[in-house]
Specification:
InterPro entries: ABC-5_transporter. The chain is α+β, with helices and mostly antiparallel strands. The protein contains 24 helices and 11 strands.
Length: 666
């Protein structure tokens, strides 16, 4: 009689399932506590509306996932990994491996029943919880989830658990150590995207203008599975993403069968079974650590090029040594210097085409005649979220000013600027031949001067200044936040709102836009515009959304005068609202610590700084406000003397300090 080979075997399946039964029970209990029990207790304790506290009106996520998403994601990130480690634990022990492989089953049968046992242990808790939630819905006074939400939660939870489990199983076949199995699973999920991000970050140290922001944000939010899950509140999985993840899962399952069939039984003695994977692990993570160390020494410690190189060498050396310890399973290791030297040689050789290509990349600035339009993105830009896509400049003068600014920024020097003062500016050209070109540069506090011509451009203001976008939006109210009082004032009358917007437009028309600039002038107060973005049907109230922010300065003359006339200027930092100020000259390294003690406590200014100058003349206070700056590295601090406990202050450079202050301090 011919023997019939089957991929499923009841006895083998039951053996594997018994191994992980407790995991299924614990997962069931965790899900029951996070969802039906929490929902029931919350309704009994606080009433039916309490289950809506978590709800966000703008969320695209089903309500059951949203109810306790952070806790669910923690469970979904831990349980399938532990399950995969336990199911393949036999492959990390030589005796257990020989025993399993001596059973009268093919390796395909062993792996199939392992997969099936894992799927049952993961999916049974989901189905049980789903049934309990379905029954609970009939007992809730005001159910906040529908059966559509219930099935959506079952589908999404199953998808997440199965994906993480399949990745864990694939990694388990490649390794011979349980601890490394878990660590490498999370590494594989996160590191590939981070590796590309770090490569781009480090390229900017050698090539000026590398467009980082859009690529790195996309790679981090969509390339790292667990980070992508946290973004489900506002961006649900697209059909394409589901197709890609399903393709990855199917590919990993097929690859796991192929790799497991060729896995040596004695491989449990090795940290990583296959030589090719071992090399990828060693040199891939060495490269990752090298780049991370370079970023640390350059960005966090603000070191120069020499420190960047030192960071590369140090990071690579430490990582290579630790990874060799892991691979050799020993602290007293044999340090393979030839492997490290080979790695260094490859990196050095790769720098040759990077530098050659970098020079071409940096100097590629389109001429005005070849540009059809250009869009500008900046970390200081505000707006466009409600008005649609980022607008593009098409006027010949605007394009010429952008290309001239591009040329200046290509050789922009940051050596004399503080890192925290930088922001990014990105040029996105659409060329006449249909191609595109994107460059990104860092811009510090002196960038206000470099960009002044463009910020005076009428088309640029109309396109990018949020003030000119307000008329296209149905603004509900404007909030006035002053520096002298904590309470805000609101302007909600439609006629007053329109007048305010018109005056702001007139002020901006006569002055450079604040977009692309780090405003140095003293902030007199802030205006924040809000619209009703949509009605929260669960709470029966409108959700307000901030669509425009304006920092008021002395240049907003018409706006400030109107606010005064209509009694909205009481909290603004104006001379008529200030009784007196105290001017304190900088005295040394500990000066700003002493200032903080006075500002954030009820300590007397005169006791702490007996030689300080008190000024109460309105015209002199006005002159100090005009000379003031927001930065904290200047020579004089001006403290506003208020009746309330909150003390506001600003700074003045020694070159701008008025003569009457110098005379008064003598």
């Amino acid at each position: 009689m011919k023997s019939k080979i089957s991929l499923w075997n009841k006895a083998l399946f039951n053996l594997q399932l018994r191994t992980v039964t407790w995991f299924g029970i614990l997962l069931t209990l965790a899900l029951l506590v996070m969802l039906p029990i929490s929902i029931f207790v919350q309704e009994v304790r606080f009433g039916p509306e309490s289950n809506l506290w978590f709800y966000s009106a703008n969320s695209t996520l089903n309500t059951l996932s949203e109810f306790s998403l952070p806790f669910q994601l923690i469970v979904f990130a831990i349980f399938p990994v532990l399950l995969g480690i336990v199911l393949l634990n036999y492959s990390t022990k030589k005796e257990a491996t020989y025993f399993m492989h001596s059973l009268p089953f093919t390796r395909q049968t062993l792996l199939t029943n392992t997969y099936l046992a894992g799927f049952v242990a993961l999916l049974s808790p989901i189905l049980i919880t789903g049934i309990v939630l379905g029954i609970l819905r009939f007992f809730l006074e005001d159910p906040f989830y529908s059966f559509v939400d219930l099935f959506a939660w079952i589908g999404l939870s199953t998808f997440i658990l199965v994906f993480v489990f399949i990745v864990t199983m694939m990694i388990g076949i490649l390794v011979g150590n349980g601890l490394l199995h878990g660590a490498l699973t999370y590494t594989v999920i996160a590191v590939p995207a981070l590796l590309i991000v770090l490569t781009l970050l480090n390229l900017q140290y050698f090539i000026s203008g590398v467009a980082l922001t859009s690529y790195t944000e996309t790679l981090v939010t969509k390339g790292i599975f667990f980070v992508r899950l946290t973004d489900l509140y506002t961006n649900s999985f697209s059909i394409l993403e589901y197709v890609i993840y399903i393709f990855i899962m199917v590919s990993l399952v097929l690859l796991s069968y192929l790799m497991y069939a060729k896995r040596p039984s004695e491989a449990s003695d090795q940290a990583i079974v296959y030589p090719v994977v071992r090399s990828i692990f060693l040199y891939g993570l060495t490269y990752f650590a090298m780049l991370a160390s370079g970023v640390y020494f350059t960005e966090a410690l603000q070191g120069g090029f020499a420190w960047t190189m030192f960071g590369y060498v140090l990071g690579a050396f430490i990582a290579y040594t630790i990874l060799q310890m892991i691979l050799q399973k020993a602290i007293r290791l044999t340090w393979y210097w030839k492997g490290f030297l080979g790695y260094v040689v490859v990196i050095v050789l790769l720098m040759i085409p990077v530098n050659i290509g970098g020079g071409v990349y940096e100097n590629k600035i389109p001429t005005t005649a070849t540009v059809e339009s250009v869009a500008i993105y900046s970390s200081y830009s505000y707006g466009n979220e409600e008005s649609g896509e980022v607008p593009r400049l098409t006027d010949e003068l605007s394009i010429e000013q952008v290309t001239e600014l591009h040329k200046e920024l290509k050789d922009y020097d940051h050596d004399d600027e503080e890192f925290y003062s930088w922001n990014t500016i990105t040029f996105d050209y659409k060329l006449e031949d249909g191609s595109s070109l994107r460059r990104e540069y860092s811009l510090g506090e002196t960038g206000s001067k470099v960009t002044e011509d463009l910020r005076n451009n009428a088309e640029f203001k109309q396109a990018y200044d949020p003030i000119f976008q307000l008329n296209d939006l149905d603004v509900t109210y404007a909030s006035i936040h002053g520096n002298l009082q904590g309470d805000e004032k609101r302007i909600s009358d439609p006629e007053e709102l329109q007048t305010l917007i018109n005056l702001l437009e007139e002020d901006v028309t006569e002055n450079p836009s604040q977009v692309l600039a780090q405003e140095n002038a003293v902030s007199l107060g802030d205006l924040q515009f809000n619209i009703a973005r949509g009605k929260d049907i669960h709470r029966d109230e409108y959700v307000m959304h901030d669509v425009g922010y304006v920092m008021l300065t002395k240049d907003h003359l018409r706006t400030i005068n109107w606010l005064k006339e209509n009694d909205y200027a009481d909290s603004l930092l104006l001379s008529e609202n200030i009784d007196s100020v105290t001017v304190v000259p900088s005295t040394g390294d500990d000066f700003y610590m002493e200032i903080d003690e006075v500002i954030y406590s009820s300590n007397s200014i005169s006791d702490k700084f007996p030689d300080a100058l008190v000024i109460s003349e309105a015209s002199e206070i006005e002159e100090l406000l005009d000379a003031g700056q927001n930065h904290s590295n200047e020579d004089y601090v001006v403290i506003i003397n208020n009746e309330n406990d909150y003390r506001h202050y600003f700074f003045i450079d020694k070159e701008d300090i008025p003569d009457f202050v110098l005379e008064g301090l003598e």
